[in-house]
Amino acid sequence: MKKLITAAAFIALTALAACKNKTALDSNGVPETLTIGVVQSEGVEGIKQVREQMRDYLSKKLNMPVELVYSNDYTGVIEALRANKAHIADIQPFAYVIATRTMKLNPLVTLGNNGKPVTYKSVIISNAHGNIKTMDDVKAHSKNLVLGFVEPASTSGHLIPRAYLNSIGLNPDTAFKQTIFAGNHLTSVLSVKSGKTDIGCTTNLIFMLMTKAKMINDDDIRILWTSDPIVSDPIVAKAELNKDLQKRIQQAYLDMNKERPEILKAYVKIFIKDTTRRSYMVSNDTLYNGLRKIAGGIKSLKAN
């Protein structure tokens, strides 16, 4: 029995070492396999297939193995970066801001439109068949309402609507009957539709894909408030990753629209109807300073 245990332990250690070696950086900061952290996005039709096509494109372009590391939420993606399980990541703006509190990340690219970053918006919603029809109704009845955010690291589903609610005198931690985190954008919308939450927070991009997937009807959800535009998600790299490799990864994304436009078009089409003129563009840290300022101004915000 002791020999069996020893053998089993040796096999486990060998497997662990192999796993570590595959993603570990060598003395030049280059991994054997490049890993990309992404959110599962369960229920989003076609996204896994497109991501797999992107992975294959990057692998061929970079001439090295590339793997996707899936997490249930953006907090999990941050942890994957922190634990060196992911070298680069497709991450929401606020998740990037949170992550850079404890580690150095380099934004490589973001989606652009005619040389300007693509933007999206945060929305606060209610059930279209209910009695909450305006934000004045929310203010009047907040003590009887259940508020649903998406997850702590979500930009449109947490940071931006939290800041707005605070600005109109509704502290999400005290002003409502209950405040919950739904887990993802789909669940946040479905919780409002089902009545689990009275009001919810999400992105305006979610409705088209949920309607297309027949998860909601056009008349199920009422939009109570819409934010100013938010700069789209950056694709970021850990600072320790080889600088030349980072430049090659960046260039691979920039070249995608010329070399494999059908992949980029399929990805964009999942979220928006107009896929023309969309392509990756160089990103930089200053694009997210506005979010840092918002996050820094919310004393009750705890998203580490």
From TrEMBL:
Transmembrane segments: none
Gene Ontology cellular component terms for the protein in this record: ATP-binding cassette (ABC) transporter complex
Keyword Signal carried by entry: yes
InterPro entries assigned to the protein according to its UniProt record, in alphabetical order: PhnD (IPR005770)
Pfam families on file: Phosphonate-bd (PF12974)
Annotated GO biological process: transmembrane transport
Signal peptide as annotated in the record: 1-17
Cross-referenced SUPFAM superfamilies: Periplasmic binding protein-like II (SSF53850)
Keywords: Signal
CDD domains from the UniProt entry: PBP2_PhnD_like
NCBIfam families to which the protein is assigned, alphabetical: 3A0109s03R
Family: Belongs to the phosphate/phosphite/phosphonate binding protein family.
Entry protein name: Phosphate/phosphite/phosphonate ABC transporter substrate-binding protein
Organism, as annotated: Mucilaginibacter celer
Classification of source organism: Bacteria, Pseudomonadati, Bacteroidota, Sphingobacteriia, Sphingobacteriales
